[in-house]
């Protein structure tokens, strides 16, 4: 694996939160001038090739983003009806956030085993979750929590009304729970509604 690939991989896992030059230096072990050269080379590679990506340099942060020319088609994804039923992927992420908040996107990815950036952005747009702070660690990743709209949507007065999850260490499969009467029910499914699988991440 070449040095450029290391920079690319770190920017990829950082998502839209990006990483600072200092963070990239610390994680790769490269000196600042070397990292700057690698960033420039990677940016040139995206510019010269048929890639949908580019490097955005904003303030102290570097991030992988889609090229502006693709904004229209990407916007269609996020402009879909926000009142549609919650997909399986969104529900998985929402359960994890509800029980583990505040939690970062990377932690959600680790629990789910797949990338969750798109899913989280949809939940933010729907007003069900929001950024509530940043972790005091490399990259200062954003942490997410649920909103009052989350409580309203699922008919809860407060988070204390969430069902308990006894002995569950891994919330990856915690979208379904056993009720006291022995009937299985989805934690967040409204009465008469079911989730509609739609997203893959």
Radius of gyration: 19 Å
Strand order of the largest sheet: 1-3-2
Shape: globular
Distance between the termini: 26 Å
Which percent range describes the beta-strand content?
A: 15-25%
The helix/strand class is alpha+beta
Total DSSP helices: 8
Please estimate the helix content.
40-55%
The main β sheet shows up as: 3 strands, antiparallel
Mean pLDDT: 78
Q: What's the order of the H and E elements?
A: HEHHEEHHEHHEEHEE
Strand tally is: 8
Layout of strands and helices, then pairs:
Elements: H1 3-14, E1 19-20, H2 21-28, H3 32-48, E2 53-58, E3 61-66, H4 71-78, H5 88-100, E4 103-104, H6 105-112, H7 117-125, E5 129-134, E6 142-146, H8 148-153, E7 176-178, E8 184-186
Antiparallel strand pairs: 1-3, 2-3, 4-6, 5-6, 7-8
Helix pairs in contact: 1-3, 5-7
Give a structural overview.
With 201 residues, the chain is an alpha+beta fold. 40% of the residues lie in helices and 16% in strands. It contains 8 helices and 8 strands, in the order H-E-H-H-E-E-H-H-E-H-H-E-E-H-E-E. The chain has helices at 3-14, 21-28, 32-48, 71-78, 88-100, 105-112, 117-125, 148-153, and strands at 19-20, 53-58, 61-66, 103-104, 129-134, 142-146, 176-178, 184-186. The strands form 3 sheets. The chain has a 3-stranded antiparallel sheet with strand order 1-3-2. Strand 5 (129-134) and strand 6 (142-146) form a beta hairpin. Helix 5 (88-100) packs across helix 7 (117-125). The two termini are 26 Å apart.
């Amino acid at each position: 694996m070449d040095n450029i690939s290391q920079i690319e991989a770190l920017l990829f896992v950082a998502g839209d939160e990006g990483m600072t030059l200092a963070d990239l230096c610390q994680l790769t072990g490269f000196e600042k001038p070397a990292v700057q050269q690698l960033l420039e080379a990677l940016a040139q590679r995206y510019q010269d090739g048929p890639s949908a990506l580019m490097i955005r340099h904003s303030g102290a942060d570097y991030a992988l983003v889609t090229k502006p020319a693709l904004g229209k088609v990407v916007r269609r994804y996020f402009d879909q009806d926000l009142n549609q039923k919650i997909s399986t992927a969104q529900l998985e992420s929402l359960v994890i956030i509800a029980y583990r908040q505040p939690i970062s996107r990377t932690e959600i990815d680790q629990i789910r085993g797949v990338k969750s950036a798109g899913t989280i952005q949809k939940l933010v747009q729907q007003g069900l979750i929001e950024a509530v702070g940043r972790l005091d660690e490399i990259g200062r990743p954003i942490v997410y929590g649920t909103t009052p709209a989350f409580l309203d949507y699922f008919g809860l007065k407060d988070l204390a009304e969430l069902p308990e999850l006894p002995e569950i260490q891994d919330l990856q499969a915690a979208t379904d729970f056993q009720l006291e009467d022995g009937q299985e029910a989805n934690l967040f499914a409204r009465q008469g509604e079911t989730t509609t699988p739609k997203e893959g991440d």
